[in-house]
Every structure is written in C-alpha cells, then in structure tokens.
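FORM 7B - TANDEM STRUCTURE REPORT

SECTION 1: FIRST PROTEIN
SEQUENCE AND TOKENS:
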Amino acid sequence: MSFSRRSTESPEPSGLPLEVFDPAPVGVLVCRGPRHVLTYMNAAYRAIFGDRPLGVPVRRAFADLEQRGYLDLFDPVLRDGEPARVSAAPVTVRYAHGEVERRYFSFSVSRIAPAGEEPGVLVVAAEVTAEVTATEHARTLAEERRRTLLRYQSLVATSTEKVWVADPGGLLVEGSDGWERATGRPWEELRGAGWLGTAHPDDRAALAEAWYRAVREVPERFQHTYRLRYADGAYRHCLLRAVPVRDGGGVLEWMAACVDVEEQWWRELRDSLIGRASAAVAESENAPDAFAALSRVIVPALADECGIYLLTESAGQPPGDGRLTVERVAATAREGLPAGLPPRREEHVGPGHLLARAVRERRGVHRSFTPGAVPADVAPPGVRPWLSRTGAHSGVALPVLVDGAVAAVVTAFVCGDRAPIGPRHRTLMREVVEQAHDALSQALRLQRTQRVARALQRSLLTEPPDHPHLRIAARYLPSPAAADVGGDWYDSFPLPGDALALVIGDVAGHDLGAAVTMGRMRNMLRALAADHGGRPPGEVVRRLDAAVQALDPDTGTTTCVMARVERGPEARAEAGGGSAKGPWRLTYTAAGHPPPLLITRDGGARFLEGARGPLLGILPPDAPRDSATEELPPGCTLLLYTDGLVERPGESLDRGLERLRRNAAALAREPVGSLCDGLVATTAATGRDDIALIALRPAAPGR
C-alpha cells in the first residue's frame, strides 16, 4: 500500500448535487465537518462495504473495519485542502452473512465545500484486487524461486551438486557457481543449450533427446545418467535430476541438480559385468565359445576390441628364445568400428611383446601409444593393421591361469575419443576374468581332454589297405554341432585265405573314455579275427562280446557290424594256387547297428537285414550270434556306416534310412571315394553326431 499527497490545491466543487455520483462504477463517500459525519454513499460503495448509517461520524460508521489507517487522512485533507491517495490498500470486509474477505482498493481523498454548506471530504474507492493478486502471486513465485536457488546454492557449498534453472523450453537461464567451477566453463558458454556441450561426445545425443522429450512431455521428475566433462578434462558419471515448476496447467521453469555418481556407477557396472561373465561362460559348451562369451562382456563396456589367445601345449612356458606361439580363438569389436578383424589363426610374438610379457610375468601388462600408431610389440601381427585403422591408442594383456600355468591371454584395446584404459578398467577386467575362472578352467581342461581323444581317434582311423581286386574308401567327420569327441570308428584289414574284413562301430559317449573304449574294441576285434579268421563274423563278434563282459563289464553301450569279403569256394577251388576269379561273397553280422547297404551298379539299393542281433553286452557270453551271406554282384558297392549318417533331430530313423538309400542309388556309378563324399555332404550340414562310413566295391572284371 502506498500513500501520496498532491501540493496543488483541488478546485472547489461546482455545486452539482451528490446524486450525480449514484450511477458511478466506483465507490463514492462524502463526510462533512471536523467530525467527518457520513452524509452520502453511492450504490457502488454500499455494494463494497455494506450499508452504513448516515449522520454519524465515519469512524463509528466503519467501526468494524480492521484497516482504518486511511481514515487518519481525512483531517489533513479537510484542514489543508491537499488531496491524498492510497494505492492498493488491503481491506478486510465483513459481510452481513458472516463471510470475511480480504480485498484491495485504491482510495482518492479530496476536500469538498459546496456553496452555503459545511466543508467536508469526498472519498473515491476503486477495487484493484485482481491486479494486486496477480502481482503478488508473481512476486511470491519469484521469491520462492530465489529462496529455492539459495537453498540449493547452500547445498552446493557442502556437496558436489551442480544446480541450474531452465526456462519452459529447456534452455538454461540461471546457474549456481558450482556448475561453472565443476565444468571450468563460464556461464556465457553454458547458457541456453550450451550446457549439453559438457557431456561426453558419445552421450551427448542421448542426453539431448531425453531432455527435450521431458520438456515436451513434462514428467513429474526427469532423471538421466551421463558422463560430464570436468574442468581437468576428465569425464565422470553424473545423475541429472530435474523437476518442473508449475503454475496452474503450465510450466514456469525447470529446476535441476547434477550429482556426481561415479563411484555408484562403477559399483553397479562391476556387479553387472561379473554376473554376466559368470552366466555367459558357464552356459558355453566349449573353450572357444566360453572365451567368445567373455569377450562380448568386455566389449563395449570396458574396451572397443577384445581378443583371446590360447597358448600351445607348452603349458604357458615360452620356448628358450622367449618367442610365444598362440592361437586366437575369440575376437569381438564394438559396433560401428570397421569390419575386417582377422579370423581364428595362429600368431607368433617375440619375447618383448605385450602377450609374452603377460605370460612371463603372470600379471596384466598395459601400454598407451600414439593413436593409430600401434607398436609391433603391443598387438599381435594379425590384428595390428585393423587396430591402426581404428585409431587404437591403449591396450592391455591379462593372463588366464589354469592349474597354476598360463593357459590363455586376454587382450583389450580402446580407440578414438575413448579415454585410455585406466587402473579401474584394468582392475575390473581382471575381476571379470577371475570371476569366470572356474568355468574357463573346466572348458580348457575339457578341450585338452578332447584334443587327446581326437588324437587317439585319428590314430585308430587308419587308411584302408590296398587290395588288387577291391576298391575301399572310408570317411570320418566330427559333428559340427558338438565339440566333444565321439566313439565312432571304422576298420579294414586282411584275413587269412585272401579274405578282407570290414568293421564299423559306435561306442556310446562323447569323451575320452568313449575314445579309449573304441580303441580297445578295435584292437580286440582285430586280434580275435586274426586268431579265428576262418570262423564266420557272428562267432568272432560273440567272442568279442564275451571278452568285453569278462574283462570290463562296465563298458558302455557298443554297436558294430563286421563283414568278411572273399571269393566264393568255387572260385578258390578253380584257382588252385593261382589268382581266383569269379563272384565275391559277403558274410556279415550286425550287433545293434544300422544294417549294411548294398548298391548295385544299375542304381538299385537295399539294406541287408539278415543276421541282426542286439548290441554288445546284452546276450549271455555263450549265446550264439548269427551270420548272413550275400553275393556281391559285379560293380556293386557295399556301404557300412554309423547312425550319424542317417539320424536328424525330430526325424524317424526309417526316414533317414530311406534318404540314405535314395542318395546312394543316385551315386551308384560314381567312384567309391566320390560316393562317400557325396553321402557325407548330404548329411553334414544338419547332422548332430559324428559320421563314420566305409565302402567297398569289387573291381570290374578284367581290371
């Protein structure tokens, strides 16, 4: 409320009757004499302040008003004739029905002296409640904002928070001193949208998109974590929180605080990566898959590229000259980097190389270098050109120990604008690798076992013998869907009397034990066949079964087919001591194994269903096993095979056998080796088991 007095004397009234003020839109009141007796009130005044009695002093007439100070102006105005004005005066009005209301008025008080009448005072009252309320509301909001900002600034003095105020469109208009101190940038650079430039380049677009979406949608609270560039050039993770300051349905401004959450971010990242590494490696079926899963955990969270290298069988000990040979089994690059990482390959590095040092010192080794100028002793030769193209500038090598020896090395590199690999990154990488240690060790031990088993298996799968009148071909293909070694085997060897033995077998299991059992079965069967070469295959297999049950009753499930191929007795008798000519005869037995397939030269193909018996280990040792005999027509092919050639997931065995029969018939005139290759090719892409097969074809007459 304000008061003013005008020094200019007001003119005397013109003598118009007071009733002229009756229709006026403002309140008009007239008092006369030194006691200020109320003599007139127009309708507007009565509507505002209620009906008051005339003929009594004004103070008595308005005795219920709480704000009566403006009545003190009546005396000097009547005495001196100088008008007075009261602006935006608060008045508490009590109505007849009991309601009390606070309203605002501007009063004009003037001296009035009609001709022939006692002088008095004329009061004009105009209500300004609406204008005062709006002004007062804006002033209150401004004061609240000022106090809020002061509170935040006080908080900044004892914490690391940065505070700012943005307009309804999300542009900064005010900021605390802590914001300038933290970023090292003057307020002129931060104003408007300039504050977005303090975010890490990789985070800037996501921050801007999230912030302006919040400005459009106006949530109750906005939160976003990003990396903020501090005055020293380092980036730290900060949590930006902002809330809208509303006025009715609109937004007056945004109040925001930026809190440093670097330590919390690292704790959450550590927990997340260690959990992911443990789960990913544990779910892998073999060592290469486990290392590939581990590299995908490290990239992109901690590095832009991760390679994993297995050491050779020297148990992590470099040769005498310090050179190291490793095999890269996994490589992962961050999305957006150039393609062209070399495939799995063997690498050779010198004694001073980063990998060799990690192996020799059994600890992590780190190097930083000029972006794009990757030193020869930092990156393996195969990946160095690619790292140079990406602008790599920092790398680390971490050894993986199994049973006390270094079994592998994990390398990681960063490039471009990314910060060098710091101590915290290296520590977290080491923790991730260590957390996955047990699963990695188990996978590596299994890989070593499989390597031994495969070597044993390859040593037993020898080339078929050369025969002047028989063409023999064999194939073995490991399963593409499993890294385990199988128990499939084939064999072919000469028997007394110019006969030849063919064998195909399958020991249940996919481990070193299955490979050992397979080798034992093969050797025992060879010995029994040589010792009892004149006996039919059924008798030889029976003796094998009896020997296995006696020597190793816990041997797993084993199936096999044994076949004896020889000239018929008539041909042998006619030849006397010379070379026999005439048809070949097949005698065979099957112990729980898929039946042999006979393919004629003209494209006919049928399975040999005779002499079928249960797998080994089922019958009593003295139970006989049958043998069956078939004539082998000229140009035919005899095929023995394991179930991997015919079985597919979700498909019946009969369907697989029919597919084999049809494919083999189509290849009937192909050379025996080409026939085997064609059959393997039709199955290898979808099979889930090992494949072994051996095929025999009598030479054409006259050849």
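SECTION 2: SECOND PROTEIN
SEQUENCE AND TOKENS:
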Amino acid sequence: MHTRYFDLRDTKGQQKIIEDQISAAADILRQGGLVAIPTETVYGLGANALDETAVHKIFEAKGRPQDNPLIIHVPGPQWLPRYCEDVPPLAYTLARKFWPGPLTMILKRKKVVPDATTAGLDTVGVRCPDHQVTLAIIREAGVPIAAPSANTSGRPSCTCAADCLEDMDGKIDAVVDGGPCQVGVESTIVDLTCDPPRLLRPGGMPLEALEEVVGPLTVDKAVTEPLKDGEQPKAPGMKYRHYAPKAPVTVVTGPAEASARTIEQLAKPGDGVICFDEFADRFDRQTVECLGPSRDKRIQAQRVFDALRAFDSKDVQQIYAQCPDSQGLGLAIGNRLKKAAGFKTVAADQKKVVIGITGGTGSGKTSALNAIRDLGGVVIDCDAVYHEMLNQDAELRHAIEVKFHGVFNSDGSLNRKKLGELVFENKERMAQLNEVIYQFLVPEVQRRARDGNLTAIDAINLIESGVGELCDRTVAVTAPAELRVRRIMARDGIDERYARMRVSAQKSDEFYRSKCDYELSNTADTPEAFRETARVFFERLIGELREEKDKAAQ
C-alpha cells in the first residue's frame, strides 16, 4: 500500500491547498480507509468509527488486541446524542468547560456504534480534539473518527508525523502532518457512567482541573497497577504494556535530587537514562535523553514519548527513568513511564520527613504547601480530615453528641449553627469540643502520615492539638499584618474593615513564632514569588533533616 502524505504545517495563503487536502483525507475516511491525523495530544490512527470493516483495519495495522476499546472523535457536544444514550448533564458541563481539549468521556453508547469500536462494551469513549485540521477533517467526513494513537501497539505514541510514518508507512492510506503535538500525552479519560465519576486514564487534562468542576473523582486501580489476566479494560491504555521501547525500563520515583542519586547508583556504563535536564551531566557514562526541567511538566509531557522512542535506535541494555510527582500533568507522565516499564519501579533511597505548617490566614500557607508539593511531598489538611471524619467516623460523632446533645439533625448531618451557638461564645465549651476533636484527629493524622517519604501537616491549631508532636520540625508561616489584610481583601473580595477583624481575631505571629521550630516570613509581592522562596527553604530543611537521620542511623 502506498501511504500518501498531506503537509498542512505551513500553508499560509494557500487556502485551496488546505481545503483540497482536508477533502482528500475526509474522502479516504468515508471510503473506509485509514488516515493518521494530528491532535493536541498525540497523532491518532483514524477510521470511520461506524464502519466495522474500517475499524478492524486499525487493529490490524497497529497489531492492537481486539479487547482494547477505541475512542471516537467528534467536532463538538452537539454530536453526543447521535452516538450516546442517556447523556448526563455533567457531560455537557464538562464539554462546555474543556472541549475542544484532552478530555475523553465514557458514556453509554447507541447501537449505531459497532462492537468493533467499543470492544463489545455497552459504553463508548468520546472526545473533541483541539486541533483545527482534524476538526475540519471530521466535519468534512461527516462521521465520528475512531483514532487510537498512530503507533505500532506497545511502542511509544507518536507526537509528530515522522513517527507515524516510521511505524505505519505502507500499512495505512495517508498521514496528515499538522505539526508537533502541543500536549504530548494522550487525553484524560473519565467514566461518567458511575457515581462518583472514575478516572480511568490520566492525561493532558489534569485531575485537579476536573475535580474543580466534578468534585472528588475515584481513581481506577489501572492508573497505578496493571489489570490482571481476564479483566477487560473499559478504556484504552488500561490493560496492556504500552509506550515501551525495546530495552526494559525501570522508573525511579521520589524527589528529583533523590531519584537522580538513586539512578547514579543503579545505572551501569552504557545503560540508558531518561532524566530531568539539570541532572544530565551526572550520567556521562550513560546514553541520556532529557525529559525537561524538573519543575516544567508541560515540557516533560511533550518530551516523554520522544525520549522513550529515541532509545529504539540506540544500543542500550537497560533504561532508568526519573519520574515526576503526581501533581497536575505529573500523574499522566508518571503513568506513561510506569506502563513503559510494566510498572517496574524503584523508590529513591531517602529518609521519611514530616513537617508541620501553621500560621494565620493571609500569611501564605497555601503557597508554602504548594512548595512542599513541588518537592514531591503530600499535604495532610487537618481541617479537611476533621470534616471527613465528621461524616464517616461514628465514634467521633457519638463523642460530640454526648458532650453537646442535640447538635445532629434527624438525617444525621451536623447542625453547625446550633453547635456554633453553644461553643463560639463560651471558651470552656470550645475547649471541650477541641478536646473531643483532638482525641480522634491526632491518631488519624498519624496514620495518614505514615505513607510517603515527605509529608506536610497543615493545621491552624498545630501546637494546641498535639499534631505538632508527630512532626520532625514545625514551621510558622508569618507575614506583616498590613500585608495579610491586603491579601485577604484581594483573595476573598471583602472590605478592609472585615479583613482587619479576621486578622485581629486570630493568634498573633508572636504566638506561632514562639511555639514553632522555624519561622518562614512572607513579604513577597506575589504568591508565586513566595512559593519559590518557600521551595528553597524547604529543600534545604528537608536535606538537613535527612542528613541528620542518615547520621543517626549509622
């Protein structure tokens, strides 16, 4: 088969050429052919999703297992009722917010979508790609396009037309070159047929962005571990070893400095290393592919498949890869690396550190906690833990009811107004309530803090509750009162009088300063600037603590 090549990268002022090539690609798809098409995520191998024979050609060209369902691509939410049953309002909400873009929604399918496309499932994945060339091809074709990544099954996905030709030349009818992919990892897949919705595959749409709209999502176990034999995947990328170069891959997790140090210990001369840019010079006896700066996940997402694919032309026996943390795009990048490794991972050798963080509103605690996340840490929000326990912990609820009879409604929910009336104007009763809360909260926080190598505990009452005793060090985040007032006014949209009342009602900086091991003062002009200051502070503190622990263990 001769594979045609349509170059649509730079056709400024050549509208007729653009239209002719789009029409030619659309005609191939209508006639049952295969076309590699560009999207913002990766290149897709497209076929008419309603043509069972054409869909089978995708599986043949890729060597793809038949039980691995495909995603259909549409030009907008107006096409959803054509191919999906009982479309929930949430689907349209997400489409308005995130389409076109790297989000795939799993919905109930109509019978017009054949079994070959859905792998026999009664659901179908649907997305609207953010690439004008491909959207124009879909509209011109007038049919939804089934399009898994345009690579040989199991190999790293294609992020440029040259990759598609490397894998598919002579196997498919055409390749449309729309330039390099801007996102670089596949779409995020969320299942809307269950409650709460479930994340099936992390991708170019960060989980945090979805949860701002949807609320908490359940994360499918296939995101962090392989499915077992006999388990059918509900979405692409859930079951089989994917994205793998020829040489075996080992993923090293943990903070960047620690994972680089661990790879130095593991990698032999001549091995391959995928690392963040700033560590490349440590591996002069290995073959190196750079993933991007350790703090720039956008670039890492664009490079991850290129880095994996590059090793197929290099003579290495083993590849070690640094892994970003799971915040934002890091969840998707880490998932792709781990799938390339068949989930073979090594945790960087590091001592566990727990840091307590406290301070008044407007001081900059959020930026400080984000700095901990930047360093690969996990944050435990004591206030959130308390409210979660209030809904789920029967013993805590009973203890509160014993002390403050009648503060729970008939449906079991807490009557916050009634409880507030009892305790807010009565210091003795407030102390009684706190005593009950702390009795249950501290053991729960201690249990959660056992996981991970770096944990920050966020608590306004860090010292009084006893949670501070769980920490290696405690840090007070402070700021001048005038700055706090201005920040609260800007953040919460309140007037100066109310902002000053909120600041004056809280403990003074001197209280936090006198009770904590360290003070982190925030006089920065922007949250971003303080976040960077805090990152440097915590990086140094964490290093000192781990060095202390290493010496103590010797």
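SECTION 3: OBSERVATIONS ON SECOND PROTEIN
The mean pLDDT is 90.
DSSP finds 21 helices and 22 strands in the chain.

SECTION 4: SIGNATURE
Preparer initials: ____
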